[in-house]
Amino acid sequence: MNRDALPEIDAAILADLERNMADLARLVAIPSVAAQNRGIEECALLVRDLLTERGYRSQIMPTAGNPVVYAEGDGDSERTLLFYNHYDVQPAEPLNLWESEPFTMSRRDGKVFGRGISDDKGHFISRLHALDAVRKVHGGRLPCRVKFVIEGEEEVGSVQMPAFIEANKQLLAADACVWEFGGEDENGRPEQYLGPSGHLLRGALGPHRRHRRALGHGRLHLSERGLAADLGIEHAERSGRADSHPRSLRFGQASLPA
């Protein structure tokens, strides 16, 4: 799959926009506030169902706290891309500061409003939406394997995630992990977080170059989509140095040209 397919993918995204907006509204309507122990099981079930409806093998996995939703789907390549998201949200209080009901999605001035849309339910739906479009353009298939891990305690410190990851290392194994956030830079170019801080070592498109960034300290712009497109990347552990593989990826943020 190459950049020539991007116009078709964009068209597929626009054609299916309202269905995905409806799915987002369903998610927003569930007050999955981890700090208040509200709506957690209901939201985990809906997240699982949204994944299952799209053909992913999905399951709810218990922890000592709130459950994790895990899903995976096959692709043409054995390379695997892991998506991390969370379905819990912050409390909506103080309610008097809202111009609309926090758990009812509303649209104003070309924007959508509701608790959890920007952190992190909107990002989860946007990834499902994008993968739907890629599959539609790619003959009903994905170009690589994908996995999802969606937790329910991020807003209270992800207390159970270290133990969950330790117990499920093989299940969660992937060539790269896309973190929860995304957006646009000051020039309107799409950005995608690949983790909170770390190193990126590039070799696929030229001489090896090592970059390091942390949130709030600049951003890395990829002049080509190759690093993201061909998934010729491997992730490393948070601690220690990035490995010497010429296409290794270590937690950073990529801003892809529009």
Structure description:
Helix 1 crosses helix 4 and helix 2 runs antiparallel to helix 4. The protein is 28% helix and 26% strand. The chain has two domains: 1-172, Zn peptidases (Aminopeptidase), CATH 3.40.630; 175-258, no CATH class. The model is unreliable at 199-258 (pLDDT under 50). With 258 residues, it is of the alpha/beta class. It has seven helices and 15 strands. A hairpin with a 5-residue loop joins strand 8 and strand 9. The chain has a five-stranded mixed β-sheet with strand order 1-2-6-3-7, covered by helices on one side. A four-stranded mixed β-sheet has the order 8-9-15-12, with no helix packed on it. It has a two-stranded antiparallel sheet with strand order 4-5.
Protein topology:
Elements: H1 6-15, H2 17-28, H3 40-53, E1 57-61, E2 68-73, E3 77-86, E4 106-108, E5 111-113, H4 117-137, E6 144-151, H5 161-167, H6 169-172, E7 176-178, E8 182-184, E9 190-193, E10 197-202, E11 209-214, E12 220-221, H7 226-229, E13 234-235, E14 248-249, E15 253-255
Parallel strand pairs: 3-6, 3-7, 12-15, 13-14
Antiparallel strand pairs: 1-2, 2-6, 4-5, 8-9, 9-15, 10-11
Helix pairs in contact: 1-4, 2-4
User: Could you give a short account of the major beta sheet?
Assistant: 5 strands, mixed
Q: What is the end-to-end distance?
A: 17 Å
Sequence stretches where pLDDT stays below 50 over 5 or more residues:
199-258
CATH architecture of the largest domain: 3-Layer(aba) Sandwich
Order of adjacent strands in the largest pleated sheet: 1-2-6-3-7
Mean pLDDT: 80
**CATH level-4 homologous superfamily of the largest domain:** Zn peptidases
Mass-distribution shape: globular
| Tally of DSSP helical segments | 7
CATH topology of the largest domain: Aminopeptidase
Assess the beta-strand content as a share of residues.
25-35%
